[in-house]
Structures are given as structure tokens and as C-alpha cells.
Design a protein that fits this description.
single chain; mainly alpha; 9 helices; elongated
Length: 208
């Protein structure tokens, strides 16, 4: 097999390996997947796999960096630019359905949940790199809106978990329970309703 020589060819090969790894993890579970399996799915030699990744754990970390990191950075950027709590919530829940439907994040989440007891270090890495950052982001938004008199919230950190709970459930539903058209969920409507409920329930008395 010809070795990739250019940076572009190397990047394409690396992405092919990550795609193959995610498919193997999703179908077989992280524990049951072998490096050989990833190589075969990517139509590359086992030796080529080790040129890019020293282990399955390294592949998983690379997937975390390529899938989760850009999403949380995008959310952080959006939250920095919005001018009110209501705009922030509506903007957030316009983005979420797109991520669930068009990215690999739900499948990545399913892999993580499936092997969570066997690889606590990897789970902790995902929690710190994505979940905790997302919760901190929402808690910060809630705190700022509370201090500005837009909303009234007693426990921003706990309320942040209520805000994101339907995101996790919808992601799991999308990859585990959605098996045909009848079991699909109107995510746009779901998150519009969730946003409306949050805005109404948290709005401070007298706030416009």
C-alpha cells in the first residue's frame, strides 16, 4: 500500500481511520473493537493504523477532539455574542437539532454510555472536556441573566442540568430508539417548546 506523502493525504487517511473507528465502536462497543477491525474497515493495513494512533484510547481521544471540541467552542462563541437570556436560549435550541441530525455526536455519546463502566478514565475525559464545559456555559448564562434581572433562578448549576437534559435524551433517542419514520421526533418543535417553557418559568417578575 502506498504511503501518504502530502499533508492533505495524511489528513484524509487519518480521518478515514477515525470514521472507521467510530463505526466499529458504535457497532461492537469500544471494548470489543480491535485495531485490526478499524484497519479493515478503513481498507488500510494494521501497520498504517499505528502510524497515526498508538491505541484505541488514542483514537477515542482524537474523536473527542474532532467531534466534541468544535461544538462546545461554537456554543461558547454564540453565548458570548447574544444580548439576552431569551435570545441565547432560542439560538441554542435552533442549533441543537442540527447537531443531533447531521453530526456524529449522538453516535459518539452512545459509544461512551455503552462502555462507561469499563473505561472510567475515558468517560471522565469526555465529562471534563464537553459535559462540564457545557454545564458551566449554561450556568454562567443563567447567573448573568439572574444578575441582570432578566430571570430568577435559585441554583444555576442545577438548573443548567435541566436545560441540557432534553439534548442528551434526544441524542440517545436518535441513535437507539429511532428505527423508522413513525418513531422519529420533531426536534425543532421539541426544543422550541422546551425553550418557551424555560423562558416562561424563569422570567423574573416585572421583566420584559
Amino acid at each position: 500500500m502506498q504511503r501518504a506523502m502530502t499533508d492533505e493525504a495524511k489528513d484524509q487517511r487519518r480521518q478515514a481511520l477515525l470514521s472507521a473507528a467510530l463505526n466499529e465502536f458504535f457497532e461492537k462497543g469500544f471494548a470489543a473493537t480491535r485495531m485490526d477491525d478499524v484497519a479493515k474497515r478503513a481498507k488500510l493495513s494494521k501497520g498504517t493504523v499505528y502510524l497515526y494512533f498508538e491505541s484505541k484510547e488514542a483514537m477515542f481521544i482524537a474523536l473527542l477532539e474532532s467531534l466534541a471540541e468544535p461544538k462546545i467552542e461554537m456554543f461558547e462563541s454564540v453565548m458570548e455574542q447574544v444580548e439576552s437570556f431569551e435570545v441565547a436560549i432560542r439560538t441554542l435550541f435552533e442549533i441543537v437539532p442540527v447537531i443531533i441530525r447531521t453530526t456524529e455526536m449522538p453516535r459518539f455519546l452512545k459509544v461512551l454510555i455503552g462502555d462507561s463502566q469499563m473505561f472510567p478514565d475515558i468517560v471522565a475525559l469526555y465529562r471534563d472536556a464537553f459535559i462540564e464545559r457545557a454545564l458551566k456555559l449554561i450556568a454562567g448564562l443563567l447567573t448573568r441573566a439572574h444578575n441582570a434581572g432578566e430571570i430568577c433562578v435559585e441554583a444555576p448549576e442545577l438548573t443548567a442540568r435541566i436545560v441540557v437534559a432534553p439534548v442528551v435524551l434526544s441524542g440517545i433517542w436518535h441513535v437507539v430508539f429511532r428505527q423508522d419514520e413513525a418513531s422519529d421526533v420533531d426536534l425543532e418543535a421539541l426544543f422550541r417548546i422546551h425553550g418557551d417553557m424555560l423562558i416562561r418559568s424563569l422570567k423574573a417578575e416585572g421583566a420584559k
